[in-house]
């Protein structure tokens, strides 16, 4: 395993160079990998493994749109696509890719089929780390590990088809067979990871829950919203407020940051932007750090996982969720975003057709709407 230096700290990393696909195929040649669940991660991981020559089957409940999708994707009922319990029986490695809430509900069924020497694979540390809440306690005579791709299953598949790879973390919770390392890394490569970095179940889930509540989704929406509201309250139009808050970030800056880092961005912007960003970033850090500490504590004490389990298992979960999503969708910020996206040259034809309005008209309507809000 390679030791790489990350900003002065050495970490264990497995790359495709040292663990090529041929080695992964060799390690998995006598295994039947059963991917249980065909939601978001399921298709990405199952299709990539299939294309990589791994013996993979899918377990999915029948009479659902998801089952039909698996058929459309090339999985054959009775050959490579089965009801969940049948797939659990056939699989020697069980990739447990149901939603985290469904994993709790299905656990008694899964447990029955975890016979000696099999492996249980997760893509999240949630079920095991919070096992007092989830009840997911595997038998001692099986391997338990995870590969967590750092992105959506859709990106995992898309990048695989482009010949690229998403980075993933991996962790071993139980090594009953002595083969857990080879098995988990082989699976990591087979599902299409670019490289794999080492973690443990607890760290994986703590960082993941913090990240998605923080800068990846929660904090960023909060900051977008705060800046947009200030600009609007000070008389800026929705299009101007949206462009200065989101559009420039996603269209121009973030692709460059992804390529070169924020340090490069700071060194390669106008001197005016540079002076301001250098003056303000530490103030934003200091203002938000207490909230990030509070968030981490909320994750570490199990409050966030309990909240997620409680809300996701309510019978009216979907209706309540829809109300919250509607608020976001219908907010002026994201409605303005929709119009701005439609004005991108590559989308303009569609927008013109859709709304039958001229560009001027789109903005006029937006301005009228915002007057009544602002
Ligand atoms: N979303 C991501 O991109 C992502 C990224 C990294 C890691 N992960 C982790 O990967 C795992 C899978 O996540 P996901 O987002 O792919 O899950 P998901 O899309 O929410 O999973 C949906 C799957 O679960 C099945 N399901 C739901 N409730 C069920 C029930 N009561 N009985 C039987 N099947 C049920 C669905 O079948 P039906 O369609 O029939 O309901 C579908 O196959 C999770 O541990 C997650 O944390 C996800």
Task: Describe the fold and architecture.
- The chain is α/β, with parallel strands linked by helices and 374 residues long.
- Helices cover 59% and strands 14% of the residues.
- It contains 19 helices and 10 strands.
- The chain has helices at residues 21-27, 41-51, 65-72, 84-90, 100-112, 126-129, 131-134, 153-161, 180-190, 201-213, 218-233, 238-260, 262-267, 271-300, 303-312, 317-329, 332-343, 348-355, 359-373, and strands at 2-6, 9-15, 33-36, 56-59, 81-82, 93-96, 119-122, 143-149, 166-174, 193-198.
- A 10-stranded mixed sheet has the order 1-2-10-9-8-7-6-3-4-5, sandwiched between helices.
- Helix 2 runs parallel beside helix 8, helix 12 packs across helix 17 (332-343) and helix 17 (332-343) packs antiparallel against helix 19.
- The longest helix is centred in the last third of the chain and has 30 residues, at 271-300.
- It is globular, with a radius of gyration of 24 Å.
- Residues 356-374 have low confidence and may be disordered.
- Bound molecules: NADP nicotinamide-adenine-dinucleotide phosphate.
- NADP nicotinamide-adenine-dinucleotide phosphate (NAP) is lined by residues 37-42, 60-61, 64, 66, 97-100, 102, 105-106, 123-124, 126, 148-149, 152-153.
**End-to-end distance:** 58 Å
Radius of gyration: 24 Å
Shape: globular
Share in β-strands: 5-15%
Helical coverage, percent range: 55-70%
Keywords, separated by commas or semicolons:
374 residues, alpha/beta, 10-stranded mixed sheet, 19 helices, 10 strands, 59% helix, disordered C terminus, binds NADP nicotinamide-adenine-dinucleotide phosphate
């Amino acid at each position: 395993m390679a030791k790489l230096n990350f900003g002065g700290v050495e970490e264990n990393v497995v790359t495709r160079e040292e663990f090529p696909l041929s080695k992964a195929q060799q390690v998995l040649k006598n295994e039947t990998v059963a991917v249980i669940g065909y939601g978001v991660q399921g298709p990405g991981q199952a299709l990539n493994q299939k294309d990589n020559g791994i013996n993979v089957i899918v377990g999915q409940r029948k009479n659902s749109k998801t089952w039909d999708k698996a058929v459309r994707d090339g999985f054959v009922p009775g050959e490579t696509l089965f009801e969940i319990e049948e797939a659990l029986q056939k699989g020697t490695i069980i990739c447990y890719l149901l939603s985290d809430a469904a994993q709790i509900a299905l656990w008694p069924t899964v447990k029955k089929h975890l016979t000696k020497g099999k492996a249980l694979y997760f893509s999240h540390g949630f079920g095991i780390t919070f096992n007092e809440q989830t009840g997911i306690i595997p038998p001692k005579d099986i391997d338990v590990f995870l590969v967590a791709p750092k992105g959506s299953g859709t990106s995992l598949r898309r990048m695989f088809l482009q010949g690229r790879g998403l980075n993933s973390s991996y962790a071993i919770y139980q090594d009953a067979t002595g083969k857990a390392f080879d098995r988990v890394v082989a699976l990591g490569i087979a599902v299409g990871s670019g490289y794999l970095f080492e973690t443990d179940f607890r760290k994986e889930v703590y960082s993941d829950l913090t990240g998605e509540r923080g800068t990846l989704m929660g904090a960023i929406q909060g900051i977008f919203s705060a800046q947009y509201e200030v600009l609007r309250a000070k008389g800026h139009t929705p299009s101007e407020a949206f462009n200065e808050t989101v559009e420039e970030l996603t269209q121009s800056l973030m692709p460059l940051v992804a390529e070169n880092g924020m340090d490069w961005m700071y060194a390669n912007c106008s001197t005016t932007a540079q002076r301001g960003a250098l003056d303000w970033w530490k103030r934003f850090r200091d203002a938000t750090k207490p909230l990030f500490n509070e968030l981490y504590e909320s994750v570490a004490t199990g409050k966030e996982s309990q909240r997620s389990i409680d809300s996701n298992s309510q019978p009216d979960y979907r209706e309540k969720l829809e109300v919250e999503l509607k608020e976001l969708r219908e907010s002026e910020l994201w409605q303005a975003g929709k119009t701005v996206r439609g004005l991108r040259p590559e989308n303009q034809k569609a927008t013109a057709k859709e709304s039958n309005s001229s560009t001027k008209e789109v903005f006029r309507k937006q301005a009228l709407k915002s007057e009544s809000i602002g």
